[in-house]
Amino acid sequence: MGKLVGFCSMASTLFLIMGVLPLALARGHDYGEALSKSILFFEAQRSGYLPGNQRVKWRGNSGLFDGKANGVDLVGGYYDAGDNVKFGLPMAFTVTMMSWSIMEYGNQMGAGGELSHAMDAVKWGTDYLIKAHPEPHVLYGEVGDGNTDHYCWQRPEDMTTSRNAYRIDQNNPGSDLAGETAAAMAAASIIFRRSNPAYSQELLTHAYQLFDFADKYRGKYDSSITVAQKYYRSVSGYADELLWAAAWMYKATSNEYYLDYLGKNGDVLGGTGWAMTEFGWDVKYAGVQTLVAKFLMAGNAGGNAPVFGKYQEKAEFFMCSCLGKSSQNVQTTPGGLIFRQRWNNLQFVTSASFLLTVYSDYLTSAGKNLHCSSGAVAPSELLSFAKSQVDYILGDNPRATSYMVGYGSNYPQQVHHRGSSIVSVKVNPSFVSCRGGYATWFSRKASDPNLLTGAIVGGPDAYDNFADHRDNYEQTEPATYNNAPLLGILARLHGGHNGYNQLLPVEIPVAKPIAVQPKPNPVKETPFSAPIAIEQKTTTSWVANGKTYYRYSTIVTNKSGKTIKNLNLSVSKLYGPLWGLAKSVSGSYGFPTWVSSLPAGKSIEFVYIHSSSPAEVSVSSYTLA
């Protein structure tokens, strides 16, 4: 789990040490490979029923009853880091930053064949965030709790820890959580606008409601969800998230209400006052200042231009401080890496590098230079410095270590991550107990049995030192928000600028569909201890009007020693007809009219047809006779 603070700095004398040279002269990396792997990491962090096109094969279904005790479906989403908790604030920020990466560099991702994977990664997050927002003024911000989770070392498929869900509402507000989730929904709505307009509109509806909730009922989320304080305390408060959400709402809607909100509230909420040297899941000021500067350079400020000019001054302070050209510069290691804190420092490096990258392109499109206290700086210098940070992460550093797992020949082998450090449930389904996992797997002085491909770990200390030990969680634990900003930078470095004006509205290309190969073997199962087993398989497929259709057979088996009655199944992501079950008015499915119960050891079958990967089938309720 990540913690917070600030970041960014580079003394000009270090440029020679690090070799911040013109791009053509710098050491080469395969940024396309790094991009592919950085996206793949998100599939290892998935919670819930895994899809048929899941590429990280050592993972299995997990968290299948999340939210059930609270009467809400919270299955899905992402585990934030090396644990099995779903924290809403960093998850929403992860979705926002992945969406921003696609918004700016989706064309480059498409050219490299990774746009579909990136958009899938966003949608896995937004599908969950939609579930977490069941009412306009209710938002679930955490499933599980860090204290019980940290007491155990279990793969997510086995976890026995608390799965209680925690929420904010009108009486227990959380403007920072609601604001960030509004930003995530709004940003994601932009990237799906062309390829999935109905889904885009659904996201925008949630964004409208969440912004209203955040603004009308103000308060810090960790005062309402107190179990989050130890892990994701909102140190900066909620003012930055209100501005951040307003900026994304304007970006998604072009509604001048949100533009005026930024203008009228810039001073009182700190957008024009805070000169930052950090950007991350908690402190959003540098991000909103960069967005507002883009609005100004694109000619969209209107009567807010004087106030937006103040935002831009603070955005440029951030950029200059990273380059070592400000009155207050960020700290760097002897090897030239931005350094803010020992605990998961690379989260700040990737976030800062993303802002430097997009601002470089904004300035290039506007035909302007960056203005620092030391003088004018060409846009290319911002991109060169961002590139130097990425190259450091990928191995150009004093230790010659890649801090992306699976990239290069020398990368962390003992990652602080429950799933990767314990043998896959697919290899050995034997139950791993809460404390037994510590004794058998956590303390094991050997490489992880499962490669956590693409994960960006916490990284080195202030002196470029790094200890590759599983118990060194400050340096070897990965996090989703480490990777999210990196997607955009890697796409930019791999695909180049593409020659378009970054200040104009960007049309996200329609991603090429990812082929789903039908599998004759079961693709989904209930947990091993469940009294009801569900398995699906493809029985046939055919092509009609250029589209491939699949027929799926689903077998529901009673593995308890008693007769099952009143069975209710949830079938989601179904896009075609279904036979063999009776659908209720509530939308769930039960026994067909000719079946009243399912004796012990017996099975029933139902089938459905659609042109997608298998539907998500789970047990909602039943009784044992």
UniProtKB/TrEMBL annotation:
<feature type="signal peptide">
    <location>
        <begin position="1"/>
        <end position="26"/>
    </location>
</feature>
<protein>
    <recommendedName>
        <fullName>Endoglucanase</fullName>
        <ecNumber>3.2.1.4</ecNumber>
    </recommendedName>
</protein>
<keyword id="KW-0136">Cellulose degradation</keyword>
<keyword id="KW-0964">Secreted</keyword>
<feature type="active site">
    <location>
        <position position="477"/>
    </location>
</feature>
<comment type="similarity">
    <text>Belongs to the glycosyl hydrolase 9 (cellulase E) family.</text>
</comment>
<keyword id="KW-0624">Polysaccharide degradation</keyword>
<keyword id="KW-0326">Glycosidase</keyword>
<dbReference type="InterPro" id="IPR001701">
    <property type="entry name" value="Glyco_hydro_9"/>
</dbReference>
<dbReference type="InterPro" id="IPR008928">
    <property type="entry name" value="6-hairpin_glycosidase_sf"/>
</dbReference>
<dbReference type="Pfam" id="PF09478">
    <property type="entry name" value="CBM49"/>
</dbReference>
<dbReference type="GO" id="GO:0030246">
    <property type="term" value="F:carbohydrate binding"/>
</dbReference>
<dbReference type="InterPro" id="IPR019028">
    <property type="entry name" value="CBM_49"/>
</dbReference>
<feature type="active site">
    <location>
        <position position="416"/>
    </location>
</feature>
<dbReference type="InterPro" id="IPR033126">
    <property type="entry name" value="Glyco_hydro_9_Asp/Glu_AS"/>
</dbReference>
<keyword id="KW-0732">Signal</keyword>
<dbReference type="InterPro" id="IPR012341">
    <property type="entry name" value="6hp_glycosidase-like_sf"/>
</dbReference>
<feature type="domain" description="Carbohydrate binding">
    <location>
        <begin position="532"/>
        <end position="613"/>
    </location>
</feature>
<keyword id="KW-0119">Carbohydrate metabolism</keyword>
<dbReference type="GO" id="GO:0008810">
    <property type="term" value="F:cellulase activity"/>
</dbReference>
<dbReference type="Pfam" id="PF00759">
    <property type="entry name" value="Glyco_hydro_9"/>
</dbReference>
<dbReference type="GO" id="GO:0005576">
    <property type="term" value="C:extracellular region"/>
</dbReference>
<keyword id="KW-0325">Glycoprotein</keyword>
<dbReference type="GO" id="GO:0030245">
    <property type="term" value="P:cellulose catabolic process"/>
</dbReference>
<feature type="active site">
    <location>
        <position position="468"/>
    </location>
</feature>
<keyword id="KW-0378">Hydrolase</keyword>
<dbReference type="InterPro" id="IPR018221">
    <property type="entry name" value="Glyco_hydro_9_His_AS"/>
</dbReference>
